[in-house]
Design goal:
The complex is a heterodimer of chains A (about 450) and B (about 500).
Chain A (H helix, E strand, L loop, with lengths): L8 H11 L28 H12 L9 E2 L12 H7 L2 H4 L11 H18 L3 E2 L6 H15 L4 E5 L4 H10 L6 E5 L10 H9 L3 E8 L13 H5 L4 E5 L1 H4 L12 E5 L15 E5 L12 E5 L5 E5 L6 H4 L12 H38 L4 E2 L11 E5 L4 H10 L2 E2 L2 E2 L13 E4 L7 H14 L10
Parallel strand pairs in A: 1-13, 3-4, 3-5, 5-6, 6-7
Antiparallel strand pairs in A: 2-8, 7-8, 9-10, 11-12, 12-15, 14-15
Chain B lengths: L48 H12 L22 H7 L2 H4 L11 H18 L3 E3 L5 H18 L8 E5 L5 H8 L3 E5 L1 E2 L2 E2 L1 H7 L4 E7 L11 H10 L3 E5 L12 H4 L3 E5 H4 L12 E5 L11 E5 L2 E5 L16 H37 L14 E5 L10 H9 L7 E2 L8 E5 L6 H15 L3 H6 L11 H6 L5 H19 L2
Helix pairs in contact in B: 2-11, 4-11, 5-6, 11-13
Classes of the chains: A alpha/beta (about 450), B alpha/beta (about 500).
Chain lengths: ~450, ~500
Amino acid sequence: MPRWIASGSDEEAALLRELGIPNTDALFADVPRRLRVGRMGLGPGHTEAEVVAAVDKILDRNRPLHRFASFLGGPVAVRYVPAAVDAILSRSEFYTSYTPYQPEASQGMLQALFEFQSLWVELTGMDLANASLYDGATAIGEAALFCRRLHDGDRFLIPESLPWEQKSVLTNYLAGTNGRVEEIPFDRRTGRLDLAWLREAVGRPGVFGALVDLPNGFGVLDEGLPSVKELLGPIPLAVSADPLALSVLEPPGAWGADVVVGEGQSFGTPPSAGGPLLGLFACRREHERMAPGRIVGLTRDAEGRRAFTLTLQTREQHIRRSRATSNICTNQSLLAVAFAAYAALVGPRGLAELARSLAEKARTLATALGAVDGLEAPKFDAPYLSEFTVGLRRGTVAEFLDRLRRKRVLGGVPLGDPRPGAARPGEWYLTSPHELTTDREIQKYARAARASLPASGGGTSR
Amino acid sequence: MTFRQARWDEPLLFERPSSDDPTTPAPEVPGIPERLRRRSPPAWPELTELEVVRHFTRLSQMNFGIDTSSYPLGSCTMKYNPKVSEVLARRRAATELHPYQPEETLQGSLEIFWRLERALAKVTGLPEVSLQAAAGAHGEYSALLMVRAYFRDRGELARRTEVILPDTAHGTNPASAAMAGFVLREIPSKEGCVDPAALRAAVSDRTAAFMLTNPNTAGLFEPDIQEIAELVHGVGGMLYYDGANLNAILGVTSPGRMGFDVAHLNLHKTFATPHGGGGPGAGALAAGEALAPYLPVPRVVKRGRQFTLDYDRPKSIGKIKTAYGNFGLDLRAYAFILAHGEEGLRHIAHRSVLNANYLGKRLGRFLPRPFRPLVKHEFLLSGAPLRDRGVRTLDLAKRLLDEGVHAPTIYFPSLVEEALMIEFPETETKHDLDEFERAFERAVTDSAEHLRAAPRSLAVARVDEVQAARNPVLSWKDLRAAAAKLETAASDAARP
């Protein structure tokens, strides 16, 4: 076992002597005998070298993305993380610190979080941001609860195209309220929101908020979104948006959003099999006391110098307890620092360049896959940025993606709820090129796709 | 100890000059409809890599971490974060993985999840574990949704509306219970522990759950835990274990053995994953037989030699976050458990409890200790006597920072006046404890004037938190607006 526990029998003896007890068992005299556990069955400890060998051996059973031509995206992005981001995060003054309860001892983390908040404010066009939530899906849940604090009602409108896991998380965030979700259908040709339906739905009382997403769950950039707030009137509008997309899109704050959330992992954090991720949250000034989570503010110290501190804490669980705006305590601060470092290193121009490059690759990919008989790529006749939906005319997504995998192509992320018996929109999946995707890989994907679809005319191989 | 923190007048990123050439046209991004196209780029400067690295390095020098200082925040279990875990979590085979790549290509990660779950089941004495929760409070909330689903299935949800809590509960407990739609009943403690009489008066067929931390936030092991479990189960309620303080009982007792039905664990406390200045955390959920079917999907299962994500759990509450768990942290926690093994984990409990009792006895010379002296992982002091000298616990905490140690948790739990809650986990040596004692003695015996003027050795002096809340400046945008207002005011004043 490595020397992580303070030890040395002399040292321990001195501590015991001070307490006048023969051994540490005496310190557990208050734990009733009946409750003691014998062996847990965990086995012996290991040296550091053994731990490394054992963990590496297990990790060897993973096949990381670079072994494939990979086109995975959706809720978790595969994006290069500049070495400088990790160098900054590796400063152990950052990563081994706790929530900055003592501002004087934590100015570095507080300023970094203030900068993170400022960046999300710039991207969204909102007035203020919090210091992070768990991930994009829970941020949607918090946005729904936030809307409910602003407006009475029992229905929260969401796009039918919203990814299934975001729907499931959201439903769970509303489970303790009388609120339920109602789905705004999408136009079957364009994948865009059915605004006529929305107009009719908000005409009926009881809607406490509506969510739209940009790009939406199909990868579509819905140009109808700037009209949504007009339809909603006083009903709060929540927007879930991708930070890279926002670097080139008109900020939702400019078209009436009351709260903007998102998933920030793509800025400086590797996908790591799905976590940790980064929840983003921004809102308007008049609602600052309704916001969930930690917020860093700028103030002065006793000598009049600029200083940062956690603020508006009377919203929070450690003060307000059952009347807090959220139960969140631990958030994703270190990933917020990664976000800030990434945004600063890449810069606004670099982000726009990246968006352009991904959009161009996505178009090349759509052209290549669109030429494959049996695929609809893109499925929807609508603008998109860096990812889009592919529809299968024959066979199932599960079989098709599995066949692609055998040809070392990870073709995309299936859309639809994997739980048995769940309704699925269709045999569709989302595909996303990465910044390292080459034309060769795109051609390889198209070839593999041709070879992986069931023959036309024949029955599907269900 | 003489200590001076770095003091950089480090401007915001936004305040640096940009190296951008504004005459260069913005990149043309194809596919964006005119209505959605951004009119002006987001407003932060283009910087060189060195500028950015230097900026954040300077910021880091104005921050305490476990690696620089003892960090005795009670209930936060700020133990050493082993470096080997950082190395392992950065392996390409651990980072360059998409959660929705095919399971055949993700066997290593699934195996880590599965092994960690099995280990935590053994630690908690509860058979089923899910790693999906992102943090402790997230685990609490999810567990209460499981409790809801359980009572709904039994047709009792309309009646089971109450969650009972002791007044020593962490703030997240009532917040999570309220979010989950329950009515809260807080019961007063007696001598820092649950008063069985008060609990008996509170439980009824309306009780959905009783939430408890054991050892509790006063650092005390609840002596009546068996009776508590009987009372709650007697009315058909569920007993919830808040695992924030699990460190003290590793291998000694377990939530399962104590009669709890469901538990959350904070992997970033007990299992040493770094807390990152506020997060990420990782909140495992462990459930007994009654509630296990309701755990979030997917569940990691082993079929033959293959690991797979199982979505076929009809009673499950569904999903509580994107993907499965915080793999990067779960990997670190697994490495931690593997290194310690059975004996090592038990040693953690013994040593952390030894540290707390030793330091509690030593510091009891300076300030009163409420409740009985035998504590588990942490102990309380009351700073109430300081008031005679016109100072408060807050001043003492700030003065401690000048000694190069982090302050304890203060003003919690609220049942102790001017509370200080101190936790020195097992990774702190006797030398560290004695250093802290000397620092504490210097601080507590210092003049009232010095205490009120503290801190003086840090990047900033006492921060005006009242002003921060009264006049919120929450972003660069606010700061710019405030500066513009000041300028307008100044030019108005200059006008004749």
